[in-house]
Amino acid sequence: MNYHAWDSIPKEAINLMYEKLEGKFELLRSNKVFMEYVNARLQSHWKRTRCNWSRHWKKNGGRTNPELARSKRKSDCREEAWKHMCDYWELEKTQKYSKQMEANRAKQVNISRGGSRSLANHTFQLTTPETHMPPSPLELYHKMHYNAAKQGWLNDSSRLEYENITQHKQAAMDKLVYEGITVTISIEHEIEKEAIKSVLREEENHTISMGAESSEQDTSENEVLKNKVIALEAKQKREKEKYEKMFEFISTKFPDFENTIAMETSDEVDGDNI
Prior knowledge:
Elements: H1 11-21, H2 32-59, H3 66-71, H4 79-89, H5 92-106, H6 119-126, H7 137-145, E1 146-147, E2 152-153, H8 156-178, H9 185-253, H10 257-273
Helix pairs in contact: 2-6, 7-8, 8-9
């Protein structure tokens, strides 16, 4: 848990996970498809554990009362790991990123047909029994977002994203061919993985940028409205002061002015009542 991104975990730590698994299961390390499935399940469990701990931290006031949250350590988390995670969650950068991701997820439109099953599970199920070849990353993406028996693509966002991934892949393939490198199936799969990551990263950065622009626009509009209110209040204050000075001047020049106004107002009221 000292690493906050799965890809940054060193191979030595991954091997320790393998060794723990081998105490209960037989790992076919020479079977690439099987090990990819194992890695995906390990990553899924690692991510789910961190999410559960983070949810527990937030539920116990992590954002508003971090000291209280620290004292409410989750039962399945070692004290050292809990302290490290609390240090990480309390960082301003981490909290800012977390809130931005929550906002992004609320706006998410690119849905999937995967259901409750993980991508690793889908990959394992779609692996060809005879050749033990898994579906390519691009095939898996297509499977998760396209349904030929129904409406086709789930939405325009999925279709455009798939087209963008395909373009990224083709550009990378053309570059390797130009350099005289033979593209194997393994290399092609890696290219597709990088293309998908690149497109998803672009989408995420675009969403964050749009959110920032929207926030700046809202702030600008609020500032304009605030200035208008201030100007209107200042105008009303000037009118009130002008009226008070004029009334004071008339009262000084004509001492009976207030009594005259009061009598006229009383006569008007009595006339209305007749």
